[in-house]
Design brief:
signal; Amino acid ABC transporter substrate-binding protein; 266 residues; D-Maltodextrin-Binding Protein, domain 2; 39% helix; Solute-binding_3/MltF_N; 2 domains
Length: 266
Amino acid sequence: MLIGLAGTLSGCGESVTKRADTQDTWSTIKKRGTVVVGLDDSFVPMGFREKSGKLVGYDIDLARAVFKLYGIKISFQTIDWSMNATELRNGTIDLIWNGYTKNPQREKVVAFSNTYLKNKQILVSLKKNKINSFNDMTGKTLGVQSGSSGYESLENNPKLLKDKIAKKTPVQYDTFTNAFLDLNAGRIQGLLIDSVYANYYIKHEANSADYNETQGNFKSEDFAVGMRKGDKTMRRKINAGLKELKRNGTLAKINKKWFGNQKVEN
């Protein structure tokens, strides 16, 4: 009986994988009139909730603008970010659109749109801790978000920072908001984080002058939309939509709204 159950579960897993890799769902989504986008709703300025609970952000505006071209509405679904690919492949969501970094490891299971924004990982600390380089984190405690591109960069390039920190192991957080709380309280001395998040967060803090940002040698990153490999039509539509928003000036307006005069690379 147990053997039979194991076989059934294995078969279900295989069918989910096969469906995600081969089924093109665009016609179904078009008929339904709604596409489900998964996100971490605490990732400022890409997708986050205001005090009122309203969901706002760069990616929120961009996603809505793209699908408005096709007459499709968006349902934003908050997910456990460390489970984003699983939620995508099992059909809970249709897209991952929330400052999602394209990399070879993720490309093994997820298809990506063209890059729509450049990003990089930086080390944020309090100026009073006098951390001005990665070497200054030697023996100190580092925070990072679970499942984030920062965590992957840390693990894939241990000599740059991981091997220097206390116990060679970072403290993992479910959200950057909680990580900043611990940074401010002195429970961690550094936070490896996306530059777009850090710049926006610090800019809107009353004590913004208390923070220090340190550049390291991690490679720059490409933000792109993640989707199931079978959704080839979806990929073409999103790429075409992003191209049109750049052509008609909508992308520039969204850049201006969320980043002001800060130079961004699309």
